[in-house]
Hints:
Blueprint: H1 16-26, H2 30-33, H3 35-61, H4 70-75, H5 80-94, H6 99-112, H7 115-128, H8 134-172, H9 185-222, H10 227-240, H11 243-256, H12 263-279
Helix pairs in contact: 3-8, 5-6, 6-7, 7-8, 8-9, 9-10, 10-11, 11-12
Amino acid sequence: xxxxxxxxxxxxxxxxxxxxxxxxxxxxxxxxxxxxxxxxxxxxxxxxxxxxxxxxxxxxxxxxxxxxxxxxxxxxxxxxxxxxxxxxxxxxxxxxxxxxxxxxxxxxxxxxxxxxxxxxxxxxxxxxxxxxxxxxxxxxxxxxxxxxxxxxxxxxxxxxxxxxxxxxxxxxxxxxxxxxxxxxxxxxxxxxxxxxxxxxxxxxxxxxxxxxxxxxxxxxxxxxxxxxxxxxxxxxxxxxxxxxxxxxxxxxxxxxxxxxxxxxxxxxxxxxxxxxxxxxx
Length: 281
């Protein structure tokens, strides 16, 4: 009996128009080839990564005044630190005229990272015992710590504002005449808010540094023969731009400790400050 093979139907070749449409669908769009959209798309993910790194740093390490991170959880897993703050507050309520109670509260708050509240407690202790030099040194250190924190906040805000700037410049000044073609009101609003935040943080940093200098000046009055106090005062004043106070403190340091190992560096700083002051008139 003869066998007949069934003929398989041949597949039709894709039409040329279909192949062309497929190639066209895979071709990059005009927006994909433009520089600024590509830059914003890639930079956006990098910015998200940086924000995530900053966020994890704040969570893991409890960066910043008043922050509570994983380190705080492990450190205070027994509740000892939190309980010490509660106990210290109760002592100040029971004995509001006892400077030791306020100092204990300030120390407990510093352990918790509550720098601003610790400063308030220190000021209470100083008001009750104004001749005690130790609280002034602690107060100056806390003000300097806050100044550093505020400066870091301002730098982060400036970085965020700088990230927004390239896209806005492209959108707002794309026309050859320089006239705005497109606008980004949301982006402009965010950038304005971030810039204002940076300005406020820098102003607060300057205020905190000035308060640190004032605390060192009070400490220098209580310990006029301590060269280390003069050196700390001079350095704090120099950082805030108070050249007159820095020069006077450096000079006093050299009078009190002319043979100190830091005397050579102090003389160099004095020379630089005097030249800057002379140039400024």
